[in-house]
Amino acid sequence: MDYFPYLRKEKLPHIWCSGCGDGIALKCIIRAIHNKGLDKNKIAMVSGIGCSSRTPGYVDFNTLHTTHGRAIPFATGLKMARPELTVFVVTGDGDATAIGGNHLIHAARRNIDLKVLLYNNHIYGMTGGQVSPCTPMGDYATTAPYGCLENSFDIAGLTVAAGASFVARSTVYHVKALEKLIEKAIDKEGFSLIEIMSPCPTSYGKINKKGANKNLVLAQKTQSVPVNKAKDMSPEDLKGKIVTGILADRDIPEYIKNYDMLTSQKK
Amino acid sequence: MSLHYEIRLSGAGGQGLILIGKVLAEAAAIYDNKNATQSQSYGPEARGGASRSEVIISDGDIDYPKATEVNLLLAMTQEAADKYSHDIKKDGVVIVDSSFVLKNPKGDFQVYSFPITQIAEEKVGKKVVANIVALGVIERVARVVSEEAVINAIRARVPKGTEEINIKAFKCGQSLV
Amino acid sequence: MGSRTYMMQGNLAVAEAAIDANCRFFAGYPITPSSEVAEHLSKRLPQVGGRFIQMEDEIAAMGAVIGASLGGVKSLTATSGPGYSLKQENIGYAYLTEVPVVIVNVMRGGPSTGLPTLPSQSDVMQAMWGTHGDHTAIALSPASVGESYDMTIRAFNLSEKFRMPVTLLLDEIIGHVYEKVSLPDPKDLHIVNRKKPTCPPDKYLPYAEDESLIPPMASFGDGYRYHVTGLVHDETGFPTNNPETIDKMLRRLHRKLDPYMSEIIEVEERETENAEIGIVTYGSSARASSSAMRAAREAGIKVGMLRLKTIWPFPTEAIFKFGQRVKSIIVPELNLGQIAHEVEQAIKGTVKVHKVNRINGEPFHPDEILNKIKECK
Question: Which terminus, N or C, of chain B has the lesser number of Cβ atoms within 10 Å?
Fold first, then answer.
């Protein structure tokens, strides 16, 4: 397919490094939007700060690059003002689970219809490789020279527990599966989150001696375990694995629809 | 002589002093077409402890919305009687609920003492309308709002279905003076 | 007496004015002494086709109102000192991205949690310099319940016209006091709406400088697909590192109110014609000052008052002129001299400025100001 109708051609080339997954994820997003036939005028893409959050700059939608961690609140206001828009949030593990963690769980709890595409690269890439809430324990970062001593967030699990309608996880290796999951998120009414494992060879790969840039993406093939298979595996066997697929797909009343219904009954 | 009259309503949280402050202010401002301001204490103070509401009634503009020289103090507890009787205007009035205030404040003012809460319970049948009984007393003592205006304001402010018992309480208060 | 005459609290007047100004979105977080604004709008907004949300924190509330405003809906948030501090980063975002929003700050004592329900005027400098970076600001300060209504309408109008956040600085006294107000018929109000682009979408430059200095603003979803970023951007809205472009953009943001100062700045002068002693004050302190002035005039002291209805941009010219006419100036305020310092700068040393300050959580008693007047005589 032709990607250019969806891109701001004059803004290319993008800033992402060779071996980064963010460009692959962007192509998946565009394909899903194309497949669903969404009107570009009715799409808004909102982001925070970080590598992933540069995505809106490249796409020809209504795009909003906000402050660090706050994409979800901005998107919440926009969606409440213009519910007819399909509102995507593109964010990263640092942006959405550290500084913006509170917003993530509350938006999921409200079940407001935002499509959150969260790129997890285990690190603060843009600021130079500092430790993130998703850096695996023991791995190195520029602010974890002795190794990361904290537990990682299970972002998808957290979002399921908080009450989102739709939660899934995939990788940039599995482009077809990722594309289909994004399509499902577009269709779903309510808070949807896809945790997209998108490796960072520059800031995470180098310091953790992961070798050639392509290695991290290729490794996702063997690390990934479909959710159905993972059910029967022990925590020991699941160590270092990426559980992929749909983790929650529930029909829960969407926030704005619910708000309008409740207030029209009682006002 | 233009009218400028300051009322301070004091007691404990839950005694309904904010409500009668609003009723007095609305009676004066909306139904008697004068000017009025009403303010109250907020915060931890308003959670069960001391409670205070101030009403200023004037026929001109009210510059300063808080009481500076109180014409009339209502004290529904001993603590309030002790704490708020220091800035009463010379020849002002203090009304105390003798159900709770055993030691009257002393000063250059006249004290009216009635067992307001006890009367509310015995004569109206409900302790919670003690504030409205007090309002009846205030109306008679202060004479700055019309009886009709207060009754209208009571009807507009009290919960639906309780209008009549509140009017009864108001009249009961009036009859004490 | 009109049919819209009420005994009403300042906070409620703000909420009702927001509805009459066509504000249809509110996001907030509970904080005294401003919560009545949120409480009232949570009930009222759905009745007029708007929406309300209580967010998880102050920062989120500020982000949400900016998002809604970009969707083309006039938006309001309300807070007090600690919440205003938390909102500052996103307020800066609204300055840079030129998104109209109104922020109500019902001031209480600080720093930190400070004095939750007690009056203060200690956020007046924060309303100008609270967020990082150079920018211009608008802050208004009502001194009564009626003026809280009028200034809320004005705050929305200024915000829409100049594409920027506007802060309405109430204080606890004005926010909570009940006063008699006669609200105008909404049909008679002068309501300003943001200028929208008229060019075709492919020609739209969201931050292009024209002679008005205020570029037209498209709403998300209306066919003008454009980019909004908190990075310093060029006229297309995309980030730039070009020093010339950066300079041009930031200087426009800094001077965009310059041609409109006389329209934005409002002061009220009372008995200034023959005054020998001048009071410069604002908000609830003006109420105590009025009482003091009346008493002083009765005692034969010629006192006049200049009340700042607009705090920012600072009414430098009006204050300088006032300073030329009087022998001394008194600045009563519920902080340790934030505006007095600005007044000193404005009058350029021509007369002495006397401060009257109170920071103990109690409002001024008119006698304090009267005593200072007598001292200055």
Answer: N
